[in-house]
Amino acid sequence: MLTAALTVSDSLGFGFDRAARAAGLPDIIVRFNPQPSEAVRQRIAALPDVAAYTVRQELTGIGLETADDFADNGVLEIVGPGRRGYAIVAGRDVSGRRGEVVVERGLAVAWHLKLGDTLNIEGFDTRRIVGFSESPDNVSYPLSTPRVYVSAAALGVPPGARVNLADIWLRAPANLDEVLVQARATSYGLHGLRFVTRTGVRVLLDQAAGIVIDLLVALSLIALATAAVLLAASARAEVQRRLAAIGVRRAVGASRGHLATVQGLEALFVAAPAATLGAIGGVLATYGPTSRLLVLLNEPAPGAALLPGLIAAWLGAVAIPVLAAAWPAWRAAGRPPVDLLRGAELARGRGGRTVRGAGVTGPRAGLTVLGVRLAGAKRMRLITTAATLGFSTAFVLLMLTLASALSSLETDPGALGKRYQLTADLPASAVPHVRAIPGVMAAAPRYESEAVDSFSLGETIDVVAYPGDHTTFEAPPLVSGTRLRGGGEAEVGLGLAEALGLDPSSTLAIELDNGRELRLRVAGVVSSLDHDGRIAYVPAAALLAADPSAGEDEQLAVRLKTGASAAAVSAALGTSATPATGAVGRGVPLVSVLRSILRAVAIVDGLVCLYALIQACALTVQERRRTVSVLRAFGAGSTAVGRLLAGAVIALVVPAALLGIGLERVVLGPALAHLAASYVTLSLGASGPEIAIVLAGLLVAGVVATAWVTRQATRESVIEGLRAQ
Amino acid sequence: MPVLEARGIVKALGAGRAQRRILDGVDLDVEAGEVVAVLGRSGSGKSTLLHLLGGLDHPDQGRIVLAGREITKQNPRALARTRLRHVGFVFQSFHLIEELSGEENVLLPARLPGAGRDGERRGRRLIGELGLTEIAARRPHELSGGEQQRLAIARALVNDPELVLADEPTGNLDQENGATVLALLRNLRRHAVVIVTHEPEAAGVADRLLHLSDGKLAPEGVALRESA
After folding, report:
1. Does residue A646 surpass a pLDDT of 80?
2. What ipTM does the predicted assembly reach?
3. How close A587 gets to chain B, by Cα (Å)?
4. Residue A215, domain member (yes or no)
5. Considering the domain B32-58+74-227 in this protein, what is its CATH number?
6. What is the H or E stretch that residue A613 is in?
7. Is B75 on the interface with A (CB under 8 A)?
8. Whole-model pTM?
């Protein structure tokens, strides 16, 4: 669990930094309308503190095709000499020879491309793939557009050709703000200017990976805590089991330090190979899915970089049981040897209240009830183990709930604050007709346009506009400020607000498709996952006044009455009707990978639960060998022993289930939903199906643990058990 | 027909040069209502014999027939069933379960899967007959050794077994309590009882005394003569 958690958290937490280092990511990426390269070079050369720069042409909307796949939104970068800003992760970079291309790794994985394969680039000839690249300035295909690189020299591009992109590396990145001010000042006359900084890229990527990285890192930390509790509880239980042996050694004169050392060394001999196996298992379970996610994020798998962390985790996994074994041994050795020798059996007098009329005040003491009592005899262990199981249960429950939430984000527009169920490609004049359709509550034109922030982001912003109150159709939760009221106001998504440093009463300045700028006062900030929260709700009048072409793509948003049939209304609207969709349509691969990770971590966590149950049962049997043997002497077979152990399992599982469900619903779910609040309002409280699945899982784990330990217990000689102290 | 019939029982313990035939051709018949005491020094194989007779262990050679069933041919599941219905054990250390009250301890064998239906009623009757009613609700650690052993005897009888095997039943008791326990075992009229002990007091309650020495079981008088 420890290494699984480490693999996930390290990979996702430090992936960008690793990728940026490997790629030599520039401090500033500037995009602009095509200019002669010499003019651009002169302007960059005038900037202070520039360590290096390179200029190139970036072509968008390029068709890319292989024998099996095709995309018409490819990005072709024509690279010249100098630094690249991307890393070659396989093969080599493009040379000056003709017919070579480097392909982004995400595209290669998605299209199953191999080095040496050919790729047809629209407008160019067919090229042989010589390398795979990784560039963390954007997420990769299929989350984003497919990107390929060809050599300017191979294309015969003259040195003075026009370029539209510049990568700039600074001597002192701390001076970035000053350089940006200078760059804006010297860029007078350039159109379509967009600056992207390394910090900005990180913000974008953090948002692209978004909520899920935050959640997984948080989950990993929880997993680390769970692993630590379990290891400590297990080691402590082992010392409890050996109290008699410690007592004997103490009686013959062994010192406390010697006993603690011996106990620690014994734990070391068990913990070292176990930790090794566990570490390998944890990495194997999570490395694959995590690497697939990193491919989508254009970040490298941690590889050897994970080793220090794994070694530290291994040391921790060994140190915790060693210390956990040595410490109670040290404490135990401080007690009188006579007490220790007695301690091999349950301490007499403790918890020994008189049972008045057995069968009257308590449940009929059958085997199952006896099992419950045997498990309850070691209260601290029962509490510790039940707490560990409960924590693990809560963790699994949270992952299932999260997976369910991801699905609902994908499929349920309501989860994103969308209140309309249908859109129709109809003009605004059709609104009265649509409203008259039975089952329709409201209908209004919905305008959606893409824009960019004028200053720092090259990424697009979704601009959504309604003629009236947009909350009738879309009401993402308000985080701060108020809903937009006047014609000069806007509501912005939290992702956008964080990226641009916006808050209520600040000014949103966006550049529309036609090059016109729209300035609006930010009335409020809303929580939205749509477009990673980079969304702005503006009045339709303001949008259409600034960019009349936005009205060309108008649709009608149709909100249905409660209980109305979407199918019936769709039929009435005709072929123009389309169901409203969730947010992650193009993020389906991401969701799929995330589910794999959640599943892998859940499996590891489930195994932890199973181990804890088996360990607790085995310890109960080990300590109560004589009780089990007495029962067997009186004719108890494996069924009877199974019932006894089932009682011990019930004593653990029932409180663990209650604790787990309560913990998830009251603490973890709300806490993680709060983390996600930057993007969306999620309900991460477990519901019936998830709880049923987890309870079924606990039941299965309990049955497996019972069966396993019963098998072990009934193999032992009855006579040996009767002789046990 | 005897309740218990053992013929040619051989059992070796240890391995290699340390191996020793602790039982070497033991024969034993015990009738219903008969109390047989097996005497012998510590380590002579008394407990081993008792374990074999009760189906807790398998002999290396020989056959044991208990209540008409040859238990030496039974698998573990069948042996457990035989012990449940036909054998009751009384141990030197009582082996009462600390988490259960006296009554719950007595009734536990009757609540095992496969036990007869009348066990619980019989157990409560036994508690009354053995004078344990006042202490039945208490936990074992609240009771004297004698009281615990009387509860253990009630537990051994709860499924009405044909054979009761008592392993040093007075070993942890003072003289007075030991006498009480032996008297209880003496009065089990319908059951065959085998007591293994190294305490001569047990001889006083036995119908037959046997001595186990050098792996051989012989009537006490014969053994004494041979020793002399």
Report:
1. yes
2. 0.88
3. 57
4. no
5. 3.40.50.300
6. helix A588-623
7. no
8. 0.62
